[in-house]
Amino acid sequence: MDVHLTPPRTPQQRALQALERRRVQVLALLSSEENRLSRTSDAFAHKMIEGTISNLKTQQKTLDDQIASLLDELAQAVAKVKIVNDMVRNNEAWRVANLSLSK
Questions:
Q1: What are the DSSP calls for the chain, one per residue?
Q2: Model pTM?
Q3: CA pair distance 99, 97, nearest whole angstrom
Q4: Per-residue pLDDT tens digits for 64-100
Q5: Where would you tag: which of 4, 38, 58, 73 has the fewest CB atoms within 10 A of its CB?
Q6: 56: which residues sit within 8 A by CB, 6+ positions away?
Q7: Hey, CA dihedral for 33, 38, 40, 45, is it positive or negative?
Q8: Are 33 and 52 within 8 A, CB to CB?
Q9: Distance CA 69, CA 14 (A)
């Protein structure tokens, strides 16, 4: 028997959670690399760390864009559910009104 105290997450919600988790990881790596850069005096190592920082910033931007897109999708889904719920409520109110008028 499956018992859920909360509704199961949608695929979009699971994807959003994974992207947010990855974003936290990327930000931690970025912070570490920036700290490492400030302590590195070797020019070659400095250049490599700068490349890693650039790559991590690109990943952060990509994650931010993807998260924003998923949030938009979720907001649209919520809006659609609200519209359907309003339609059901209005239909129910209309049906009740017609029943009372027919008496």
A1: ----SSPPPPHHHHHHHHHHHHHHHHHHHHHHHHHHHHH---HHHHHHHHHHHHHHHHHHHHHHHHHHHHHHHHHHHHHHHHHHHHHHHHHHHHHHHHHHHT-
A2: 0.70
A3: 5
A4: 999 999 998 888 877 777 777 777 777 766 666 666 6
A5: 4
A6: 26, 29, 30, 33
A7: positive
A8: yes
A9: 14
Q: Which two tokens stand for residue 11?
A: 């695929």
pLDDT tens track for 13-41: 899 999 999 999 999 999 999 999 999 99
